User: Fold this.
Amino acid sequence: MTNKTAYPKAWLFVLPVVALVAFNALIPLMTVVNYSVQETFGNNVFFWEGVKWFEQVLNSERFHASLLRQLAFTGIILAIEIPLGIAIALTMPTRGFWASVCLVLMALPLLIPWNVVGAMWNIFALPEIGLLGQIINGMGFDYNFTQQPIAAWFTTILMDVWHWTSLVVLLAYAGLRSIPDAYYQAAKIDGASGWAVFRYIQLPKMKRVLTIAILLRFMDSFMIYTEPFVLTGGGPGNATTFLSIDLVKIALGQFDLGPAAAMSLIYFLIVLLLSWVFYTLMMRTEEQ
Amino acid sequence: MRKAIWLAPTLYILFLVLPIYWLLNMSFKTTNEILSVFTLWPQEFTLDNYVKIFTDPTWYNGYFNSITYVLINTSISVTVALPAAYAFSRYRFLGDKHLFFWLLTNRMAPPAVFALPFFQLYSAVNLFDTHIAVALAHTLFNIPLAVWILEGFMSGVPKQLDETAYVDGYSFWRFFLRIFLPTIAAGIGVAAFFCFMFSWVELLLAKTLTSVAAKPIAATMTRTASTAGYELGLLAAAGSLTIVPGAFVIYFVRNYIAKGFALGRV
Assistant:
């Protein structure tokens, strides 16, 4: 990061990227901003409304409920996936044939289209025809995720753990592979316990990749739409209606463009703000 | 102790494979069997579901459409990201750090926010329902990712390589194409893999930007689920087939996959 040459013309190198991303990001963003401050009754007639929609969204209980559900969901999956991912990375084979087999199998869920993930879990968890549904009901629990909010949450979280824990595993595995064998030998000579090796050698070396893992998992889980939509449709009731699902309901379902646009901007700002915090932390660890 | 340590990854992989097995299991069953009895493997093994997909154009065209826009997207994203990543890894210029973060913010934009404006934008430029529209829309999150990954890999190459080449009389582009790109070939492969992956799995934008001509396979599936009633076997077969391209590309990057997921920063 430090010994870079100052070269103003380097802008030419980034110009194509900036042009493409700007086309895709700035124009739609401006459209959203436009909608967020206007009212329309169709026919492309718009009236200036100022910050009315923002006030409405920020004060609406519906938005608070979705935001709360979203935060709870993201918090829960981070609390499960990060420790689980680290544990799997620590115990999986380090090199050779079996390591490759593990990596390939673990990466598989990451490359399945998101609606297929939802459909697959739907078929897997349905109480009548699904393996999971049959197993849980066979153990004596009354489980039906299409009707019970708690079962719906359980299934959605299990699906996300299934879908994304491998990302954490792969990142943590990459971090672990970067530790020279000499460190472990030194620890052995010192008679360090397994916990000490983890706490003072492995964890510090994984810090950087784990920040990336948390950042990616935070961003993606906060934007989650397709998988829970296909699995539960946001239900039963509104039990699994996360921010994106609620947003699409308002924008495309009810066609309330103003409130939807205001909600989009608030939503985007929340993701941006939290991601910025993670990003700054990450850059700080990178400079150390 | 040595034996117990195998238990955790094995159980985890079993957990990963079970839903996939269930999907495959369903895809070889008749709708009748799925709805009437609960069986752990197909009793009346049938390939009808697959035959239907391979003979019905609305089904197999979905696969072609998806693969077409994914490949266009991957080529565009990686090509434009290469020089940009080089600039970020080697030079200081006005606003470089802010620009890098701004690019990343686009990776953070929820697709749900952009669905409707994208529809209007691509309709306005007459690209609605074309492969190129989906490919371009997906560059929104793939270019930042490709730049991020490539920058990580490029920063791992010592600057002395560049300097030696210039001393030897190489021009910039000759150095870049002949020496630098081969050096970071693994990084390019990984970046391409990630662009492929995120374009392949995304559905919300792909579905919003297409109607018939460029409809992705994933969208064909949702339509079938809603209109043709409960053809679960067919749905399962279509779903199983969407796993194949992913498994195929994983095989090629298997040795770099861990480093790639760390965005080249290990």
In short: The longest strand of chain A covers residues 38-40.
